[in-house]
Design goal:
Largest sheet of chain B: 3 strands, antiparallel
Helix content of chain B: 55-70%
Mean pLDDT of chain A: 77
Shape of chain A: rod-shaped
Oligomer: heterodimer
Number of helices of chain B: 5
Radius of gyration of chain A: 28 Å
Strand content of chain A: under 5%
Distance between the termini of chain A: 37 Å
Mean pLDDT of chain B: 85
Structural class of chain B: alpha+beta
Low-confidence stretches of chain A: 1-19
Strand content of chain B: 5-15%
Number of strands of chain B: 3
Largest sheet of chain A: none
Low-confidence stretches of chain B: none
Number of helices of chain A: 6
Amino acid sequence: MARRLDVQTGAPRTAESEGVTGRGQLETFLAVLAWRLRLPEAQRDAIRSELHAHIVERARDLMIVGHGEDTAVRTAIEELGETAELARRLAAAHRFPRRRLAMNLSLVGLGLGALGLGAVALVPSESILPVRLNLYEALASVASGVSTFASLLLDVVSSARMP
Amino acid sequence: MPDSRGRDVLKQSSELLVLSVLADEPQYGYAIIKQVATRSEGAIRLTPGVLYPLLHRMEGQGLLKSTWETVQAERNDQEGTGRKRKWYRLSAKGRRRLGQKVAAHRACQALLESFIPSLEGEGAG
């Protein structure tokens, strides 16, 4: 492998003198971004793959117009902005539908509970108190079931996989 | 730095840009950035830090659908090996949203147009 020379000193460029290589920068950036993403692994991997492709293609275009590989990769990464901010925006974009889904399911659960309680309260006789208590327990079970179903559904939503 | 209303306008414009670009054919993120720059003759630069979170949010809202393509490695292209490209296309919901946004934009434009002659008149007088 040909050794590159430093432009100013003419000395062979080492890892120390030229800093991290383009590929090294790319891997470091993607690792830091993935670490900062508070998302399930499948979503982190998908984002990592997508941005990897973006950086490689952008760097290639920059190299076509005369940039060196290291500079091109560094520029492509810098154009993505501050890593923590990018991770925050991406994570927020993924949390949005999950939060909305959870809210909708909670509202459905509350609505069912209110309907059930209303129906039980309409029964007039005191003699059916045990039946009424059983119905309350049943309603609590239904609410618990809705909650469990909501969390399962959230797991399914968050495990969207790449083909 | 734009205020919150300015950010809202930029955000809404970015969504309209993405919907419009994808109305013609499926695209991947970097291609969307290049196409927006080309169509606007460089006047609009959609940054990747804004675009990718926006694409993911729109996909979560059901406006976009996506598929993955494994990019074939070129000769001496170690970076390209096994690279995956994510293609986005408009869903039916996204196409309806585009129609709504275009209608709203035209209504707003027509409204503003009605003020422009009077402003010009005041300037001339």
